[in-house]
Design a protein that fits this description.
The protein is an alpha/beta fold. It has 14 helices and 13 strands. The chain starts with a helix and ends with a helix.
Length: 358
Amino acid sequence: MANPLVLNQPVYEPGKPIEDVARELGLDPSGIIKLASNENPFGPSPKAVQASVKALQHGELYPDGGCFALRNKLAARLNFKSNEIIVGNGSNEILELLGHAFLKAGDEVVMGAPAFVVYKLVTLLFGAGPIEVPLKNYIHDLRAMASAITTKTKLVFIASPNNPTGTTNSEEDLISFIRSVPNHVIVVFDEAYCEYQLKAPDLRPLIREGKKLICLRTFSKIYGLASLRVGYGYASEDCIALLNRVRQPFNVNAIGQAAALAALDDDTFMNQCVKDNLLGLKQLEAGFHQLGLEYVPSAANFILVKVGQGAAVFSALQRKGLIVRPLAPYKLPEWIRITVGTKTQNEKILQALKEEIK
């Protein structure tokens, strides 16, 4: 008989693939623009592509099970030790490892609402209770989250920038919050979109102070390697050791490891993506303003815009070959989330919104 927790587990709904939309609506897939999953519209890092092709020549070999080279390179960049770094099959896997290591039935996990849905999914998977604290002005309400912590709380999830709102908390407020958290609680700080910020919060000193904190990052966004599934976390040696106890062997493939290693050296690509993303955000914001649409200023590579009937607008845009993210599952039925695209892609989404609003 199946585990009851599995039978009751909600299923994650990803952004619709281009191929599915093309098949369902009879569209040419080459003409479809996907702005639903916060992917990099400028593709993967060129250096990563070259390294991937080279690594594939030895596809018959198992990957380095400990991601030795990648952990050492990340450690040098972060000024940490390599045994304070864990690499995962995307940062999503590390979220699940945290559940394996720290959660059991009856525990509680505090998180914002709305926030990345996987926080809730992981919590439920291990029989723990999600304590969802509403955002305040679309930003994590750290004071309310602190008040929600009880003796049952094991983890607190905070993302900056937050998905789906794109908002951030200040470094000062985050540090104050983490220092106030009781010692039996681990704070999980999700930095998936941090590279898009001109100045992201730096919480590394808190880890060195001994605070129970793990920070997560990914190669899926700014480096354009979403298909290869490489993420990482940094925390105390003791925390990382626990996560390695529940990590599967060979969890990160060799092609992904090689691509991530090379991407870390591709500063030209990353800096250009940051610059173009900022221009794209300004382009979309200006367009929303002209259309009279409310939006939430974003520090990430996506933006939240209020369009009225979110599901209807999503469907209408999809029929035009434009895939965005409807937010009814996040209890924001009047909103959609749009990934920042290229200049041309942004122009097309704004023109389509103008037509639908009319």
